[in-house]
Amino acid sequence: MRKAIMATLLASACSGMMAQTSAGDSVMTHASGKRLSVGGYGEVTFSRNYFSDHVSRYSQPEQHKNDPNHNRFDIPHAVIYLGYDFGKGWTFGTEIEFEHGGTGIAYEKEDEEGGEWEQETEKGGEVELEQFWIQKSFGQHANIRAGHIVVPVGLNNAHHEPLNFFTVSRPEGENTILPSTWHQTGVSFWGRHGDFRYEAQLVAGLNADHFTNVGWIHKGHKSPMEYDVANKFGAALRLDNYTVPGLRMALSGYYGHSIGNSYPRNANGVDSEYKGKVAIGSFDFTYNRHNWIVRGQADYGYLSDADQLKYVYNRLNSKSPFKHSAFVSKNAYAVGIEAGYDIFSQIERLRNDRQKLYVFGRYEMYNPYASNTKGTAYDYTEVKRVAAGVNYYPIPQIVVKAEYSQRFLKKMYNDEPSLNISVAYEGFFR
Looking at the whole model, is its pTM more than 0.70? Predict the structure, then answer.
């Protein structure tokens, strides 16, 4: 029974040579009949940015046109997977992520000090629990997963591991307007029937206090508390189709209320009068066949009552962690496509050695502030971006990436070219 269930999970989760499937199943991809699975992924990156990093480069672009270049090293993600099969269809999975090596900060509301907000440094590195769930499998068609789970809306969230995109950093458009990786606590029902994989989730709602003009709902899933507020809930759906060999196509979406999903819950004013409805629709695909990999996505989002967010209680409180002076857009979008060809496939010795060298190009356009709120414009948020480069795989689990990219902004701003290099891995050790 255990081997049959694990085989089901493997069929649902493997990405490799076939079209990709949900990253929410990545913990279980190492399904070789062992009870314990250990793995992970990680990236080390270098960026040389040929543009200003000054805080006023958009408000005073002419003054920063000739500013010096700047370089950055980073470890964006270092992740540990742990999975365990208890038997009788019960499995456990977790994904622990170390991001950027930054400072971990928590906010607390001190009731004994008149309800003041206080900020405390708690650790020397940022650690995030992206997955932590218990699952019961009834067969290929029906699985129930409860805990902290990936919300698979869009291409990037469903396939966020570094071997699943050509660029050095995660695809920029989706990574700007949507949470990335989007993970929240809730319940998921998923399964596979024929050429379809389906998933429905009920999760804690987004928090409108975190929405911004330059990131739309990107930070909405985060909580500065030691817990996630769940005054409101959200629902996510995803449907993947695998009918065409090598091709995966998917529709996904999200709906939920966001105003009032915060602490303390204000019973008056904007917080009680408006809903802040978030609705997102997304289409994405991956084609992996004949030595080509082509990926694309289109996302569109709607936020009701966007013109009221500036007046929500926590955003007006100067001592809360939610203060934002800018308006938030009613709409946001991100569209992107990338294609790469494995030129080593034409060299027999390298092909037999399983080495790959993809030469790729990418184009995307996005805007987290696609509709002006109360006549206020932030024109620098409208971006078109192109990238070209290579991905070299000495072995299937390791990739070396190099790319040259450029952001094209509206003519009153300075374009933003950069050179980016990274080394990344993804695999299982047991």
Answer: yes
